[in-house]
Amino acid sequence: MTSIVMEDVSKYFDGGQTIANYRLTLEVVDGEFLVFLGPSGCGKTTALRLIAGLEQPSEGVIYFDDERVDGRSPSSRNVAMVFQNYALYPHMTVAENIGYPLRVRGVPPDERDRKVEEVTTLLHIEDQVGKKPAALSGGQRQRVALARAIIREPSVFLLDEPLSNLDAKLRQEMRVELKRLQNELDITTVYVTHNQEEAMSMADRVVVMNRGTIQQVAPPQELYERPRTAWVARFIGSPPMNLFEGTRRNGSIDFGEAGAVELDDVLRVGDTVDDEGSTAAPGDGDTASVVTSDVQGEVALGVRPEDLTITTSRPTAGNVIEGRVDTVEPLGEYVLVNVTVNDQLVNAKLADGTVSRDERVYLTFDDDDAYLYDENGELVN
Amino acid sequence: MSLRDHFDAVTADTDRADGLAVDRDKAIAIAVFLIPGLTLFTIFSVAPIVYSAIGSFYSWDTFTMEHFVGFDNWIRSLTDPLIVNWSNMREFQYPMGALTHNLLWVVLHVPASTFLGLALALLFADLKGRRILRSMVFAGFTVPPIVIGLVLMFVYDPQAGIFNEFLRVIGQGHLVRNWTQSPQVAIYALIAGGIWVHTGFSMLLYSSALSAIDPSLIESAKVDGANAWRRFWDIIWPLVKPVTAVVVIMGIIWVMRMFDIVYAAGGAAGGPNHAYSVLGIEVYRAAFRPQIDYGMAMVVALLQLFIVAPLALYIARMR
Ligand SMILES: Nc1ncnc2c1ncn2[C@@H]1O[C@H](COP(=O)(O)OP(=O)(O)OP(=O)(O)O)[C@@H](O)[C@H]1O
Ligand SMILES: [Mg+2]
């Protein structure tokens, strides 16, 4: 029963040369399953280690409930952690590994054995208790690491890419199992991964990180529906969102030879989403002024591959962008068509691929499916 | 037998024959490359051992083997007060015999250099500039032992020695003495010097053992709630155990074969009235100094071998 609050937490290495985390501000609600998602080297592990107490913040404050914990040792924070490589003690048996946190706390052997039996049964590793970690498969090792983490009912559960060493099938199984376990135990959990699918399928909320900073914190659905920055838009989805680069001229976006799109149509999108009650980013509500103001600048228009339609003859109405087919990839489930628009490659997911290479095509999309990002990469409502 | 079975049997046979052929080729290759090593080993290890094993049962006129005398050499050597001096041992008076001195080295030097080595390795493990420190400590071990003996001479020199100077500086001037020539304390002074020298070796072995430990194991133990003391006993100590075995046994071998330091400090006699003589010194004196007693030299050398060889074998068999 613990909530975690990070306030402006930064972590620098090598005397400030490396900025691993920069001004992370975040609240993890009690019992929540929060996932840190981001590319390699973006500072996910560092953030997790800061919460664990294995690193101390260079700046900023961390609270567990209302208690300030930065500067405290990992053991006094009562966190449990599953390391990326599991970190099982190689000289101890599975049972000794799992029971170690209890042994350190002076729990009598009888009770320890009982607890070990309980968690090994829960995780289906009761047959392995006498073995050494080296004799286990990857999936079994991971369960042992999990068992060692849950045996003492920690206040916070921290997992660093625990599934990355498993094969695809086992990963899928463990994903479901982990989620079920977390639901059952109802322990606040912070989970680190660079696997988008993993993040989207397990998280209550996802924290998208890039280069040490938080890009967006949102539930998976919202992350997909309303990427707050162009970077997030380009990161989420497979394949991710297309961003058509264009120039904004008063009321329209000019894509040069590829055509132009009326801006006020697109910007109505923001209103509709707001009406649906999605959490609004600060600073919205001035769409009207954005549309009418006489501004020019580089913008990016985002449309997901699945929201694009391709026609070979120019449609008379709606939003149209012109391009040339580059390659067609029939993937069975759908056909992925790569189209060149002004030297930029974009993808469209189609039900069937009737177009062929080098054909001139027209990409159309609904107003509702378009996202506008300003020159700073921020979503314009 | 069906045709199929027959066929399988035939292919299985050829497989096995192939395997043997490969093995034979391998064996020949191994033998060819082992010849130089084995030759040296035979000339310089096996032959002398066999020679002294036989020679230890013969009487000798200087270097000439005379006639079979049974266990005469053995009994004479083992009852020689230079090897084990029972009456002095009862009164705790040096000399107590070379073998006793050697064992004293084992008991004092080996645990001390092992634990100091581990302690230093742990200390240097998360220290900036540990590489330089480590190589400095280890440098002590790369110096030839006879030089170490000479350095110890300088350290303990009654006039110019820095140890006496150090005692004067810390106000313990009454302890000042000629350390290597005072029978009752000299051996401890030498053992202390030996520890100082040998600790670098055990530290180096422990250092690499420590750096081989996955840091996430230590972090995991931290998260599990173990304090530094428990982390050491529950995680680090068991994981460096194989290295401890090597360090201890190498230490025993090193002190059982001790010669240079003692020779530098006390010459062929092993100190005033043999006060800190060791087996190596006794072999040397019996073999090369008048009165030459070749039979005894062989017996004492074999005695050293009996103690050291099983330990060396144990290390060789490890892993
Ligand atoms: N102990 C350290 N000393 C110096 N730099 C570090 C240290 N730990 C992390 N860094 C740096 O901080 C940055 C973030 O590292 P971190 O391990 O948090 O990334 P990550 O998001 O977990 O990446 P991955 O997905 O590859 O595990 C990296 O640039 C890394 O080089
Ligand atoms: Mg990481």
Strand line-up in the sheet with most strands of chain B: 1-2
Estimate percent helicity of chain A: 25-40%
Number of strands of chain A: 21
Count all strands of chain B and give the number: 2
State the oligomer. Answer: heterodimer
As laid out across the biggest beta sheet of chain A, the strand order is 6-7-8-3-9-10
Strand content of chain B: under 5%
Question: How would you characterize the overall build of this protein?
Answer:
The complex is a heterodimer of chains A (381) and B (319). Chain A has helices spanning 44-52, 74-77, 94-104, 109-122, 138-150, 168-185, 196-202, 220-225, 230-235, 263-275, 287-292; strands spanning 4-13, 18-28, 33-37, 59-64, 67-68, 79-82, 156-160, 188-193, 205-210, 213-218, 242-249, 252-254, 260-262, 296-303, 309-311, 319-330, 335-341, 344-350, 360-365, 370-373, 379-380. Chain A is an alpha+beta fold and 381 residues long. Chain A folds into 2 domains: 4-230, Rossmann fold (3-Layer(aba) Sandwich); 243-373, Beta Barrel (OB fold (Dihydrolipoamide Acetyltransferase, E2P)). A 6-stranded mixed β-sheet of chain A has the order 6-7-8-3-9-10, with helices on both faces. In chain A, strands 13-12-11-14-20-21 form a 6-stranded antiparallel β-sheet. In chain A, a hairpin with a 2-residue loop joins strand 17 (335-341) and strand 18. Mean pLDDT of chain A is 86; it is low at 269-293. Chain B is mainly α and 319 residues long. Chain B has 2 domains: 3-55, no CATH class; 75-318, MetI-like (MetI-like fold). Chain B has helices at residues 3-55, 72-78, 86-91, 98-125, 130-142, 145-156, 162-169, 183-211, 215-223, 228-239, 241-256, 260-266, 279-288, 294-317; strands at 58-61, 64-68. Chain B has a two-stranded antiparallel ribbon. Chain B is flat. The A-B interface holds A 52, 54, 73-75, 79-81, 83-85, 87, 89-91, 100-101, 104-105, 148 and B 214, 216-217, 219-227, 230, 234-235, 238-239. Adenosine-5'-triphosphate binds at residues 13-14, 18, 20, 38, 40-46, 194 of chain A. Chain B: InterPro entries: MetI-like, MetI-like_sf. Chain B: Its main location: membrane. Chain B: It is a multi-pass membrane protein.
